[in-house]
UniProtKB/TrEMBL annotation:
Gene3D superfamilies: Metal-dependent hydrolases, Urease, subunit C, domain 1. The keyword Membrane does not apply. Keywords: Hydrolase, Signal. InterPro entries: Amidohydro-rel, Metal-dep_hydrolase_composite, Metal_Hydrolase, Metallo-dep_Hydrolase. This is Metal-dependent hydrolase.
Length: 458
């Protein structure tokens, strides 16, 4: 009997040793709490109890606990959310190779990078909603997924491949949305893009879609291609538009967006990143995604060998040359400054899964380039935290009673966003996250690839 009892104890010890740390009650002294209204960093002590914030007190008020930790004067950052990603892994420059990591891999890559959640804006709806509904971050270390599920578009339109819902009439838009609502999407996404040759929904279908989403109380996110698309989307009541046109912005756009309460998820980082890697100088390479240790940790080397961009990738090379010739970066900078100064709400989304925007690291590069394009780090972090919570109706934040999701950063991060990739200390539900085990899924080896290949995991 004693031997059996000892064996049970040993097995339980092994089980708990292999699980995330569930010591979720402790005191964290000497941290800086950002106040986004005053733009001040306030020195505080924090007590965490049962995975939630119990109290936050002034640095002069001493807190004690059996488990007392020193925050070493670092910034205690509220949970960061990537508001535009695709759970498809990472791609090479010419899309000839792929690092597929699945939804779980994306969840692990995000948390490894210090991103607590992401909004998936186009995946197989059964897979993504099924995974979301499991609520895995409540029991293990990985980021939360919020999801749109399918992309709504016309036949042969943008994103008409797998996981798409095709709509060509107002009646189809209404019926498809009413059917999707049973899956409880966190947002719905539609393409209204008049920038290229691909067809897009007509205005009557677009308006019917937005009206029905509003009636169902589901926030709408619109993939746009031109500033005219932005104007129409805002006028018809879109909750958000995503992407940033690279042409000069008409002067009326910020006001139209403000009057209609439309926010923007610009996904502005991808173009500056690949332009930087087009005929780069040594300084360009040193400031690119290729020079960041987190990139090597999360992305397989074969994909990274595609860069820098040379004439061996002729189509991409010529496209980037054209963007340079047309002053795309200058146009983007002027647009971002005008939108920000006008008070348009700007959320942070990487559009990871696309060129040079890799899962997890892409979010940091988006923040970095938003600063390069003229935004204040304070505004960027506000958009990546509290504004994102508001859009997704999340009761998150660093206040008593809320879940203890946060990261610790150098205080200089509010001056230089290139420092954000140096994050190492991550808490989820008060659990201090061990990052190394996350790489099993974020950068899978042979056996994990087999599980993905045979559909044993998504």
């Amino acid at each position: 009997m004693k031997k059996l009892l000892l064996l049970i104890i040993l097995l339980l010890a092994i089980l708990f040793a292999s699980c995330p740390s569930f010591a979720t009650s402790f005191v964290l002294n000497n941290v800086l709490l950002p106040d986004f209204e005053t733009r001040q960093l306030n020195p505080v002590n924090v007590e965490i109890a049962d995975g939630k914030i119990k109290q936050i007190v002034d640095i002069e008020t001493e807190l004690s606990h059996a488990d007392t930790r020193d925050g070493q004067g670092q910034v205690m950052m509220p949970a960061l959310i990537d508001m535009h990603s695709h759970s498809m892994g990472n791609t090479s420059l010419d899309y000839s190779d792929h690092q597929y990591i699945g939804i779980r891999g994306t969840a692990n890559a995000m948390l490894y990078a210090g991103v607590h959640a992401w909004l998936d804006l186009f995946s197989d709806e059964d897979d993504i909603f099924g995974y979301r509904n499991e609520g895995f971050p409540d029991e293990r270390n990985e980021a939360y997924v919020f999801a749109a599920g399918p992309c709504f578009t016309v036949p042969t339109g943008h994103c008409d491949f797998g996981g798409t819902r095709l709509i060509s009439t107002p009646e189809e838009a209404v019926n498809e949305l009413r059917d999707l609502r049973h899956a409880k999407p966190d947002v719905v996404k539609i393409v209204f893009d008049n920038a290229g040759r691909a067809p897009t929904v007509d205005e009557a279908t677009f308006e019917a879609f937005l009206n029905e989403a509003r009636r169902l109380n589901i926030n709408s996110v619109v993939h746009i291609g031109t500033w005219g698309d932005v104007r129409t989307a805002a006028r018809l009541g879109a909750d958000a538009v995503t992407h940033l046109p690279r042409e000069p912005m008409p002067e009326d756009i910020p006001q139209v967006m403000l009057e209609n309460g439309t926010v923007i998820i610009p996904t502005a980082g991808g173009v500056p990143e690949v332009i930087r890697l087009h005929e780069p100088s040594e300084a360009d390479l040193a400031a690119s995604v290729l020079a960041i240790p987190m990139t090597d940790e999360l992305v397989k080397a074969k994909l990274l060998r595609d860069y820098p961009v040379t004439e061996r990738h002729q189509n991409v090379y010529d496209w980037l040359a054209g963007l340079k010739e047309n002053d795309a970066l200058a146009n983007m900078r002027e647009s971002m400054i005008a939108l920000d100064q006008a008070g348009v709400e700007i959320l942070v989304g990487s559009d990871s899964g696309n060129l040079a925007m890799f899962q997890g690291i892409g979010f940091h590069r988006e923040m970095y380039f938003l600063q390069e394009l003229g935004m204040s780090p304070w505004d960027i972090f506000f958009g990546a935290t509290h504004k994102a919570y508001n859009f997704l109706d999340l009761d998150w934040g660093l206040e008593a009673g809320k879940p203890a999701h946060f990261t610790l950063h150098s205080e200089h991060i509010f001056e230089d966003l290139s420092l954000s990739t140096q994050v190492e200390t991550i808490y989820l539900h008060g659990r201090k996250v061990e990052r190394e085990p996350l790489l099993r899924y974020a950068k899978p080896g042979f056996f994990q690839y087999l599980r993905l290949f045979f559909g044993l995991e998504v």
